[in-house]
């Protein structure tokens, strides 16, 4: 029985040894992908912010703003190509003292490669309904399970152009060691407004008359990313938006805020990243390592059991003088009665 048992253990060991690279390099590449279906709600808040109240024609200073960002995956929008994920993002910014009155609503749709997270042009990708925008670089995610300490091109939806995310250090966020990236979106003309504003609001005096204006935006963004997964766990968006006359002589701040992800949502994002990291670790490290360790143990035990020396044979009985084996019978006792 020893040899068949040993051969079975050797066969199992060889199977698990071949299974390890299969899981690590084949299964992992098909499991470590962005989900098609995603629902995520994140809140950012800013204190001592300012915005222009168009209804009252007044700049409101020292206000607290809330930005609610909602991300939804559209599982049917990828036109049957499951290598591409399509996510819709909507951000609603409002004054906390008047939450029913939105200050700004921005929406966009991105399509991206589920394995690399790089943006692709398909599936109705757009910014505020404008599908002529050509996106490039990265959008909502960093490279999946492969974030490096280097710069990445990120597409800014407000200015509709890419701007580099620079690696800026390592920092702890809610107990998670995250990579910090910073992005400067340069002052950019983002819209030619249809409305005309009084010259007095633009610093042109009471006799300035109503003037046509264009909107300009500048931003300093900071993102903290889980390097194990590529999931951002905290955002900081320091934005400044102004309107200017075409000749540049009149100008006015219409929005200024330093928005930061609230701690509760930071913790939720860290929990999401931990769950994703566990799944990635299972297929990339834990299962392959366990398979290799188990295979080596089975190969070792199988070799010893199947091909090692067997149990020693029982000792042979000594040969008697009469040529037979076994103990000699005791000599016949003498008859003392004779």
Can you tell me about this structure?
The structure is a single chain. This protein has a domain of 230 residues. With 338 residues, it is α+β, with helices and mostly antiparallel strands. α1 runs antiparallel to α2. Helices cover 22% and strands 41% of the residues.
Write the SSE topology.
Blueprint: H1 2-31, E1 39-53, E2 58-73, E3 84-95, E4 102-113, E5 119-120, E6 126-127, E7 152-156, E8 161-173, E9 176-198, E10 210-225, E11 232-244, E12 251-261, H2 263-307
Antiparallel strand pairs: 1-2, 1-12, 2-3, 3-4, 4-5, 4-6, 7-8, 8-9, 9-10, 10-11, 11-12
Helix pairs in contact: 1-2
Summarize the structure.
With 338 residues, this protein is an alpha+beta fold. Helices cover 22% and strands 41% of the residues.
Give the overall silhouette.
rod-shaped
Low-confidence stretches: none
Fraction of helical residues? 10-25%
- Count of helical regions: 2
Question: Sheet bearing the most strands, described?
Answer: 12 strands, antiparallel
> How far do the termini sit from each other?
62 Å
Proportion of strand residues: 35-45%
Name its key features.
single chain; 338 residues; alpha+beta; 12 strands
